[in-house]
Automatic annotation (TrEMBL):
Binding site for ATP: K248
Protein name per UniProt: Tyrosine--tRNA ligase
Keyword Ligase listed: yes
Motif ('KMSKS' region): 245-249
GO cellular component: cytosol
Domain RNA-binding S4 per the UniProt entry, residue ranges: 369-430
Subcellular localization, as worded in the UniProt entry: Cytoplasm
Pfam families according to UniProt: SYY_C-terminal, tRNA-synt_1b
GO MF terms held by the record: ATP binding; protein homodimerization activity; RNA binding; tyrosine-tRNA ligase activity
Stored SMART domains: S4
Length: 436
């Protein structure tokens, strides 16, 4: 996928004493190993750290974006990232709270590894003294026999400790139970950390706080096997102020892949952020400085109707994920759909995304009279109501007012040869697709 992620423009806020202080202010530290040690480590010479992403879907989502931005902030502070896409852990999947995952085929997982690696690459710099590196845990698990795995790794894990991990404990008390396959996931993740510590001197793993059991399985394994002390950082799970789950829209995850969640839908998701959540989102998901965010916080408190915080948030995060050009297109599309711009300049994909939620109708090419169009689209209940709308000056086709009730729309006015955007009054919109 083409991408215009301007890494050069990203900076940490120099107003903080160190990166740890900035992470804390942004609300990105929920749980960690020894905090004083970790702060000292991150304020010193460059260290190598990693975060893992499992290919259990063909795209990363907003929860993963939190981790990618933590990785990027640490890289901007001079540290060296390892992006791990789990070719082996993705074949199993970490235990979910409720039920076993569906196992995907090896070919599917391998294909998804490629997709996720491409996505991770967009958020980190692979150049310079602290260039990021990509790793795949299939490289060191595939050659290992089951006997070697049990002898060399399994013997260091205590079943009692494993049973107490949250993800395992919740599943044990459910009707589903937990298979040995998913139970073993934490051993595999622990082994990843051990391998990366040995190969790259990696001394920090980051992840969501719901992964804490898996993060600490690695720190414990390294302590037991090699006698070394390493670190883990768990970020908070992002939730909305009203208690609903963040990152879900109409029951779907907000994916980072433009084909799975269009830039338009992505932008709208952020634009619809509640006032109570917008400042926290600006801290976590943008590289805006503390001073800039505090200005926006003031605006949200004093002029909530202006929605400056939401518009800045939507612009920044959409630019980060889809590039500035795609974001500008989305903003132009929003304006054009509501009558403040030229619909004809929108490409077909952007137009389709911008009108996806509107009522729509299909008609044949013979029904392009304005009255028929208003009725077919549902904007008027009857032909007489449609005539009244036209007579009162409330009918628009592609943002152009239509005042003649006998007007017939020409084929040259169809957007991309087949679409019309109809509007009644200021806010009632519908689309019509014309069968050629």
């Amino acid at each position: 996928m083409s991408h215009v992620n301007n890494l050069e423009s990203q900076h940490n806020d120099p107003g903080f004493a160190n990166i740890w202080q900035e992470l804390k202010w942004r609300g990105l530290v929920h749980v960690s190993t020894d905090e004083a040690e970790l702060e000292k480590l991150l304020a010193g010479d460059p260290i190598t750290y990693y975060c893992g992403f499992d290919p259990t879907a063909p795209s990363l989502h907003l929860g993963n974006l939190v981790q990618l931005l933590v990785m990027r902030r640490l890289q901007l502070a001079g540290h060296k990232p390892l992006g791990l896409v789990g070719g082996s852990t993705g074949l199993i999947g970490d235990p979910r709270p409720t039920a076993e995952r569906t196992l995907n085929t090896k070919d599917t997982v391998a294909e998804w590894v490629g997709y996720l690696q491409a996505q991770v690459r967009r958020f980190l710099s692979f150049e310079g003294d602290n260039a990021a590196r990509m790793v795949n845990n299939l490289d060191w698990t595939a050659p290992l026999s089951a006997i070697d795995f049990l002898r060399e790794i399994g013997k260091h894990f205590r079943v009692g400790t494993m049973l107490r991990k949250d993800a395992v404990a919740s599943r044990l008390s459910s009707e589903e139970g937990i298979s040995y396959t998913e139970f073993s996931y934490q051993i595999l993740q622990g082994m990843d950390y051990l391998q990366l510590n040995r190969d790259y001197g990696c001394v920090l793993q980051t992840g969501g706080s719901d992964q804490w059991g898996n993060l600490t399985s690695g720190t414990e394994l390294i302590r037991k096997v090699d006698g070394k002390s390493v670190h883990a950082l768990g970020t908070p799970l992002i939730t909305n102020a009203d208690g609903t789950k963040f990152g879900k829209s109409e029951g779907n995850a907000i994916w980072l892949d433009a084909h799975m969640c269009s830039p338009y839908a992505f932008y709208q998701f952020w634009l619809n952020t509640a006032d109570a959540d917008v400042v926290d989102r600006l801290k976590v998901f943008t590289f805006l400085s503390r001073a800039e965010i505090e200005e926006l916080e003031k605006s949200v408190a004093e002029r909530p109707f202006a929605r400056e915080g939401q518009r800045k948030l939507a612009y920044e995060v959409t630019s980060l994920v889809h590039g500035v050009e795609a974001t500008e297109k989305v903003i132009a599309a929003s304006a054009a759909v509501f009558g403040n711009g030229d619909l004809s300049v929108l490409d077909e994909a952007t137009l389709a995304a911008a009108t996806a939620e509107l009522p729509s109708a299909k008609i044949d090419a013979g029904g392009l009279g304005i009255i028929d169009l208003l009725v077919a689209s549902g904007l008027a209940d009857s032909k007489s109501a449609a005539r009244r709308t036209v007579g009162e000056g409330g009918a628009y086709v592609n943002n152009a007012k239509v005042t003649d009730p006998d007007a017939v729309i020409g084929h040259d006015e169809l957007l991309h040869g087949r679409y019309l955007l109809l509007r009644r009054g200021k806010k009632n919109l519908a689309t019509v697709e014309v069968d050629a």
